[in-house]
Specification:
Blueprint lengths: L2 H4 L12 H19 L4 E2 L2 H9 L4 E7 L3 E6 L7 H7 L13 E4 L3 H11 L11 E4 L4 H23 L19 E3 L16 H15 L1 H5 L8 E5 L6 H12 L3 E5 L10 H16 L2 E6 L2 H4 L6 H4 L3 H16 L6 E7 L7 H4 L6 E4 L5 H12 L10 H6 L6 H17 L7 H13 L10 H20 L6 E5 L9 E4 L9 H22 L7 H17 L28 H28 L1 H14 L1 E3 H8 L15
Parallel strand pairs: 1-4, 2-5, 7-10, 7-11, 8-9, 9-10
Antiparallel strand pairs: 2-3, 3-4, 6-8, 12-13, 12-14
Helix pairs in contact: 2-6, 7-9, 10-13, 15-17, 17-18, 19-20, 19-23, 20-21, 20-22, 21-22
The structure holds adenosine-5'-diphosphate.
């Protein structure tokens, strides 16, 4: 017989009880009834005592407490008497209240005895009410407080214990423990390298780690050491976490994951102890992977900004502990630390030296081929109409990260479902892209006709100038439907460029200022609608002058600090004169671009009116209609900005 059939125990189970909830309910009930349960006996006067109780022979006995209070116990047979019923019934148990039922102040013992004597003159000696004397501390005074306090204590314990399963569940009683979440073998990461599209070079690098975790001997017998730590650097959403999960999934090892900020708490010393605990747990589960996301939260260069923060002791001690732990475990313990950040430049150099995070993998925003591959991964679960073309989608999404693409696919499916479609269509994807780029359409926003006119001319200005300047990304459409925070927008298809020239950047500033220029030409007045444009222009102009060395007067000098070490520094790395010069040159550059935008628009005033009026009529116009008004694209207006270089 096999083991299973031996088991003849009944298969029923107790229903699952939510223990914290039960405790909470008991707590509430106790709070409601406690005052009654411990209800103090009713206070009466000597007169009431004599008239209502003594005379009716209802009193069983009297206990004088601390020589000042008489506690009166009523005979049980009076429990049906309406005058005593309430005092005699115990509300919580429903049975008889053991008493005392009433109390009164006796004044002095002598006078009390005297009054009682008088009141019982004609009662036979053996029938008289027995009086006893007691001295006691008042436990019952603080009992009603102690019980809820104990209950609250236990309730908190239960609630907080329930919060974190798995490794190092967080609790108010063990905040020094690591908060890493563990994906164990049974629930292990299901992600494989097939789920990671593109990132071919990165995959090759991490595959070696997978091989090592699977078969460490192959490496160690040759004397090779596998890196202890791998740091993955890249903009948000480029697949850093995904890659780390894929490594764990492929190697089939436990995967601890936590964010750098989880180490740091308000209390000094917690971070370091969490790091210790994390590595202790990891070593127990080795071979395994520890993944620390956003490592810059702890790994920032030490000693920076000490001026402001009074040296961040907690973060520094956490980082020191991390460094020690990474040194401490040998290469063969089988714990590999993967870390992700989008700011490798600000990390402490000690963290990046060989023996710690010595392997660096750089991820970038995906190019068109990679975007196509990412789309293929994320389109798999969707039910698609035939008109959905992956190449087209990849071409429409330059500058998008993997996470954006995943988001677009899901958003498109939601849009299609909302429209009760059977399949997701191309339009749904376009709508999803627009929505992710510019936010939700807000057709209900109230805009007055005058405002609408200003917005239309503003957007028409952008459209015309960017159409006529050669190096501006191709224009797709212009709309004056409010979306997200903006009231109107011109949509471009960004081209993928690695470097930008002076002409390209100046043209971009010119196109960005064209909205305001159109307003000035048309209405002789400008509006606050250009604030986003101006912000962009200012940043770009300062970048050109102070970082790219595009300005003749400043020269080929860049004040860009790729180490981030002077972030928030009080002192600027240049003199007052240079600061003035930078400001002056930036102003000149922006002014020259603005004048250029105005010149172009004055030359094309009729077209400006045509496009603006078309926009007012239709709210959204596409490339073809703009082409009809302005002719084919590619006419270069030579930049008259010699002064800036
Ligand atoms: P981060 O770089 O910020 O850690 P994630 O790895 O968390 O980014 O990526 C977020 C999501 O974006 C992933 O869950 C995945 O759906 C999608 N994604 C990002 N990059 C890729 C990629 N190369 N292939 C497939 N999906 C990707």
């Amino acid at each position: 017989m096999d083991k299973k059939s031996n088991d003849t125990r009944p298969k029923w189970k107790l229903p699952k009880v939510n223990i914290p909830l039960v405790i909470f309910l008991v707590f509430v009930l106790v709070l409601i009834f406690l005052p009654n349960f411990f209800s103090s006996p009713g206070e009466i006067t000597w007169y009431q005592f004599q008239k209502d109780m003594l005379k009716r022979k209802a009193v069983d006995r009297i206990v004088v407490i601390n020589r000042e209070t008489a506690e009166v116990y009523i005979k049980k047979e009076f429990s049906k008497d309406s005058a005593f019923a309430d005092a005699l019934r115990s509300p919580i148990i429903g049975g008889l209240n053991p008493g005392p039922h009433f109390t009164f102040n006796i004044g002095s013992v002598e006078s009390f005895e005297h009054k009682l004597e008088l009141a019982q003159q004609d009662v036979e000696a053996d029938q008289r009410i027995p009086v006893s004397y007691q001295d006691k501390g008042s436990i019952s005074d603080f009992l009603p407080w102690v019980i809820p306090a104990v209950l609250v204590f236990f309730m908190f314990r239960l609630l907080f214990r329930g919060q974190g399963d798995g490794a190092g569940g967080s609790s108010i009683f063990n905040f020094g423990r690591s908060t890493a979440r563990l994906l164990e073998n049974d629930k292990k990461s299901q992600v494989t390298f097939d789920d990671v599209a593109g990132l071919e070079e990165a995959k090759v690098e991490v595959k070696e780690i997978v091989d090592f975790l699977k078969d460490p001997k192959r490496y160690t017998k040759l004397g090779a050491k596998i890196p202890k730590g791998v740091i993955i650097v890249g903009p948000p959403g480029t697949g850093k976490t995904l890659l780390a999960k894929a490594v764990a999934g492929e190697a089939k090892v436990p995967f601890f994951s936590l964010s750098g900020s989880e180490f740091v708490e308000m209390f000094v010393g917690v971070g370091a102890s969490r790091v210790r605990d994390l590595f202790k747990q990891a070593k127990e589960k080795a071979p395994c992977i520890v993944f620390i996301d956003e490592i810059d939260a702890v790994g920032r260069s030490r000693g920076k900004n000490a001026l402001y923060t009074g040296a961040n002791d907690e973060r520094e001690s956490t980082l020191n502990q991390l460094l020690t732990e990474m040194d401490g475990f040998g290469t063969n313990t089988g714990v590999i630390v993967l870390a992700a950040t989008n700011r490798a430049d600000i990390l402490d150099p000690a963290l990046l030296r060989p023996g710690r995070f010595d392997r660096h993998i750089y991820l970038e925003l995906p190019n068109m081929v990679e975007r196509r591959a990412i789309f293929v991964v994320h389109l798999k679960p969707l039910v698609l109409e035939e008109n959905v073309d992956v190449d087209f989608l990849a071409s429409q999404t330059p500058g998008f990260s993997g996470a954006d693409i995943a988001n677009i696919c899901n958003e498109a499916a939601l849009i299609a479902a909302r429209k009760k479609k059977e399949k997701v269509e191309r339009e749904d994807f376009l709508e999803a892209i627009d929505r992710i780029v510019a936010g939700l359409e807000k057709k209900s926003k109230i805009i007055s006709p005058e405002e609408k006119k200003i917005i239309a001319y503003h957007e028409a200005g952008h459209a015309i100038v960017s159409w006529l300047l050669k190096y501006i990304d191709p224009l797709l459409k212009v709309s004056i439907i409010p979306r997200g925070k903006s009231l109107g927008a011109a949509w471009y298809l960004p081209e993928e460029r690695q470097i930008r020239t002076v002409t390209q950047l100046t043209q971009r500033i010119t196109a960005a200022l064209a909205g305001r220029a159109a307003e000035e030409i048309t209405f002789n007045e400008v509006s606050s609608g250009a604030v986003d444009d101006l912000e962009k222009v200012t940043k770009e102009a300062y970048t050109m002058v102070a970082y790219f060395g595009f300005n003749k007067k400043i020269g080929n000098i860049s004040f860009y600090d790729s180490t981030g070490r002077n972030d928030n520094a009080l002192q600027k790395p240049y003199s007052e004169e240079t600061a003035k010069l930078i400001d002056e040159e930036v102003r000149k550059l922006v002014e020259a671009c603005y004048q250029q935008a105005k010149t172009i628009l004055i030359e094309h005033k009729d077209e400006l009116i045509d496009i603006a009026e078309l926009l007012l009529k239709r709210e959204i116009i596409y490339k073809d209609e703009i082409e009809k008004v302005l002719g084919k694209r590619g006419v270069t207006v030579p930049p008259k900005l010699v002064a800036t270089k």
